[in-house]
User: Which sequence fits this backbone?
């Protein structure tokens, strides 16, 4: 009996070898395997953990270093992979509209690459995630073996369509983990094809759910990557961004809970990819055992990239920047040189025509993409120092698009509006129209606006403001030199008491050149100053812009998702204890609230007497009136109450911060003040208050100084050498590490406070009934911000280890006006991104100088060049078929170049 089994086994092996030999000699058409991951980035370092995949593809195959997803959204990108079409031609614009809809099923699905290869004799199999809205009611045409996930990515507790049958899976790792199921079923399909259909080549698509949410790792990998920080690129937490589109102008820096979350989510994403790494190697070994590697092309990519804290956005995709549109893109197969690096841009629309080309099939004319097989062969021959020439030059540019493009104004008009909005003078004009900056200084006013001889607003600092003359300190601000303090006193003496003698100090310019005969006449005109150094004006102007931006951050000009709780003392606000290290709790007002505020502001009689808070108004007689919507809607009522609670918390936090500052000043005082400065006193010389010394006199060691002050003397002490990093960030208005960066120690302090709060709750600090009520209230939390797509996250989000234990929070990852159309150009000399947004906003990033797209340098590009880029973009977004799309994408390096 035993001998019989051994003989039977030998016979099976012999038969397999004979059929494999027959197959290899009977056909020269290669096998094709496409690996697709979900939401996998290339810029955040996710490929670094996949050592086996990198060895198979990068070391032994080719890496496309500029592989792009033309639309960084799951269903549109996957539709482009299957059809080879841009989004504007297949019309699947989101994960909902037309994702596996009627138009797709009737017109595009019958023309997927699976249909063409199946009709030509290939054995085809699809395994894993298909399209987000696939409901499992049918098996798409073109696939002999079909094992596809119903709906979106899951790792456990999902349902699949297996060759027309619905099969439910549970939560047992060895039987249900979806990544492993894809690996096992694809290997079994390959084995059966080799044994039963030896004369047929094989096409397989392995579409993994990783690293998409819910990011459930295999148990054996759930403790790895604890300290991974590869996602913290230079654009990580780089916010706010006044030079970018609306969404990023509204997004501020992350709170400590968000920082901890990005680290935690990055860890889980890497853990899920280790199972993909195993699956790739498993199929690779099976092919090697069957001797099929030399007759197989392997392709590896993702549907789009991902961001984790980039530009302050906590997580997500959909942006036109490289972290979202740049994807892993690898290939290996016959004729592909090992270790090849290809710089020319390829995209997801090129996958379908490449698969058709590998199979020896003609590419239909309606397909927008182009086969990169000739490019691979060409680059491989060059690497091996062999002669090679591409008949048709490869493109320089791919189209990045999201949304349906409306009719926009001409580019020059949009640029004019954008320049008007963002120019310095326009910003000063807008800010100086606000009552809080009107002259003369009063109360706690910090800045005042006055017009010069050209009737243009100029910025001056009020006398009561802290450090009104000198705020430059390169060593932390605690060692102001004695000579500089003396220079400040001399400067005040020159511009105040010296004015009586009409003495003009060297190095100062007259602000007003009107023909006035005397200083008395000068002072009668709005108390304008006579002499102010140019350097001081420029310094004040820069400080004023920073002051305005910081004020907008504190009052909601930039938003970072904060959870609005129904109870004022909800646990999440325990962060108040460390609030000085972060930003304040904020919300955005709705358009209706903004309109109400405008109505009240327009009333001159009520301007100083009405306290306006969102949708409610407090009148001088202590009566309160709210908009009708507040009373008629329980949701609006709750939102109004939450807003008031948030403002109270802000004021409490600010008050505590002011007390800390007062204590610090009291304990560290170095001066005896001879005359107290009142906050309402102006810092401008030539006013009624300007009769004596305006600076405190030191108690010890008075320094004798010259009675004259030169331009160079004034600038002394402010020429600090900046590091390369600070020069790199010089264009960012809020790039102050001391005030805005969240260090590791601060994060650990915040985490410790959360743990203490949790432990106190366990000790029964509250009554059981109170705990029950609070849990009930937590379920009703709201996370709504006008015009933004916001979501909540809590401790129950993940059901597998590692678990999130830092409590609930809210985050906003997208906006309704974030549609765009971009040119992404890469070649030997240029590397840039040019974008036009649905709002009319235009941006330009030069990645040769700024690889992480931190600064919009649109103003450095000449308008005629921008017009040519806009015209090229307009052609690409309308192109149909590879003939048009390639012609518009393979133009000059950049319009205007020779």
Assistant:
């Amino acid at each position: 009996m035993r001998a019989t089994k051994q003989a039977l086994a030998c016979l099976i092996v012999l038969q397999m070898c004979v059929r494999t030999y027959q197959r290899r000699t009977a056909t020269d058409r290669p096998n094709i395997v496409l690996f697709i991951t979900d939401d996998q980035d290339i810029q955040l370092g996710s490929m670094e953990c996949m050592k086996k995949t990198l060895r198979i593809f990068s070391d032994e195959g080719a890496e496309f270093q500029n592989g792009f997803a033309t639309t960084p959204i799951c269903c549109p990108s996957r539709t482009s992979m299957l059809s080879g079409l841009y989004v504007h031609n297949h019309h699947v614009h989101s994960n909902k509209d037309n994702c596996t809809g009627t138009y797709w099923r009737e017109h595009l699905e019958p023309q997927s690459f699976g249909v063409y290869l199946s009709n030509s004799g290939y054995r085809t199999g699809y395994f894993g995630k298909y399209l987000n809205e696939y409901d499992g009611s049918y098996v798409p045409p073109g696939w002999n073996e079909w094992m596809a996930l119903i709906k979106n990515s899951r790792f456990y507790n999902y349902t699949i369509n297996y060759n027309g049958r619905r099969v439910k899976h549970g939560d047992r790792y060895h039987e249900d983990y979806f990544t492993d199921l894809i690996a096992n079923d694809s290997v079994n399909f390959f084995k059966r094809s080799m044994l039963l259909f030896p004369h047929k080549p094989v096409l397989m698509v392995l579409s993994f759910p990783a690293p998409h949410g819910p990011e459930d790792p295999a148990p054996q990998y759930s403790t790895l990557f604890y300290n991974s920080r590869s996602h913290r690129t230079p654009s990580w937490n780089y916010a706010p961004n006044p030079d970018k589109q609306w969404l990023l102008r509204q997004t501020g820096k992350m709170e400590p809970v968000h920082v901890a979350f990005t680290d935690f989510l990055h860890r889980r994403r890497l853990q899920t990819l280790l199972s993909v790494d195993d699956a790739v190697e498993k199929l690779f070994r099976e092919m090697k055992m069957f001797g099929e590697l030399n007759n197989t092309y392997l392709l590896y990519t993702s549907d789009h990239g991902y961001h984790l804290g980039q530009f302050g956005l906590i997580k997500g995709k959909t942006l036109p920047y490289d972290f979202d549109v740049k994807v892993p893109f690898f290939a290996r197969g016959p004729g592909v040189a090992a270790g090849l690096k290809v710089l020319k841009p390829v995209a997801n629309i090129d996958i379908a025509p490449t698969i058709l080309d590998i199979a020896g099939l003609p590419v239909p004319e309606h397909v927008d993409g182009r086969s990169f097989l000739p490019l691979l062969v060409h680059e491989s021959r060059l690497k091996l120092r062999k002669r090679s020439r591409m008949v048709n030059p490869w493109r320089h540019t791919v189209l990045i698009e999201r949304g349906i493009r409306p009719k926009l104004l001409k580019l020059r008009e949009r640029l004019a509006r954008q320049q008007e909005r963002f120019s310095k003078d326009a910003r000063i004009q807008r800010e100086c129209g606000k009552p809080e900056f009107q002259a003369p200084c009063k109360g706690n006013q910090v800045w005042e606006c006055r017009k010069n001889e050209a009737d243009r607003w100029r910025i001056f600092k009020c006398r009561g403001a802290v450090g009104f003359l000198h705020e430059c300190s390169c060593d932390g601000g605690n060692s102001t030199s004695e000579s500089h303090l003396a220079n400040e006193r001399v400067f005040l003496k020159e511009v105040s008491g010296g004015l009586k003698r009409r003495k003009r100090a060297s190095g100062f310019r007259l602000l007003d050149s009107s023909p006035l005969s005397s200083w008395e006449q000068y002072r009668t005109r709005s108390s304008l100053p006579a002499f102010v150094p140019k350097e001081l004006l420029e310094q004040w102007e820069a400080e004023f812009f920073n002051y305005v931006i910081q004020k907008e951050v504190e009052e909601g000009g930039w938003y970072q998702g904060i959870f609005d709780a129904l109870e004022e003392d909800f646990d999440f606000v325990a962060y108040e204890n460390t609030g000085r290290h972060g930003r304040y709790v904020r919300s955005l007002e709705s358009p209706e609230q903004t309109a109400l505020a405008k109505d009240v502001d327009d009333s001159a009689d009520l301007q100083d007497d009405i306290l306006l808070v969102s949708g409610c108004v407090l009148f001088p007689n202590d009566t309160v009136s709210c908009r009708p919507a507040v009373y008629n809607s329980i949701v609006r009522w709750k939102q109004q109450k939450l807003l008031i609670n948030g403002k109270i918390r802000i004021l409490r936090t600010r008050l505590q911060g002011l007390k800390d500052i007062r204590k610090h000043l009291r304990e560290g005082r170095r001066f005896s003040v001879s005359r107290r400065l009142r906050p309402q006193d102006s810092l401008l010389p030539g006013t009624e208050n300007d009769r004596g010394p305006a600076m405190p006199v030191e108690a010890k060691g008075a320094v004798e100084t010259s009675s004259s002050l030169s331009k160079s003397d004034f600038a002394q002490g402010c020429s600090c050498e900046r590091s390369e990093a600070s020069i790199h960030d010089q264009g960012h208005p809020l790039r102050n590490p001391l005030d805005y960066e969240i260090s590791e120690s601060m994060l650990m302090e915040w985490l410790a406070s959360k743990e203490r709060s949790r432990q106190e709750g366990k000790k029964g600090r509250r009554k059981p009934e109170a705990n029950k009520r609070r849990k009930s209230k937590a379920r009703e939390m709201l996370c709504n911000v006008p015009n933004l797509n916001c979501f909540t996250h809590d401790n129950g989000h993940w059901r597998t280890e590692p678990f999130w234990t830092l409590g609930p929070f809210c985050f906003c990852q997208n906006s309704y006006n974030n549609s765009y159309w971009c040119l992404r150009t890469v070649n030997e000399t240029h590397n840039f991104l040019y974008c036009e947004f649905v709002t009319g906003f235009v941006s330009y990033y030069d990645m040769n100088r700024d690889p992480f797209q931190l600064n919009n340098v649109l103003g450095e590009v000449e308008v005629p060049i921008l017009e040519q880029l806009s015209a090229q973009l307009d052609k690409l977004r309308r192109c149909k078929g590879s003939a048009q799309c390639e012609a518009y994408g393979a133009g000059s390096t950049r319009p205007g170049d020779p």
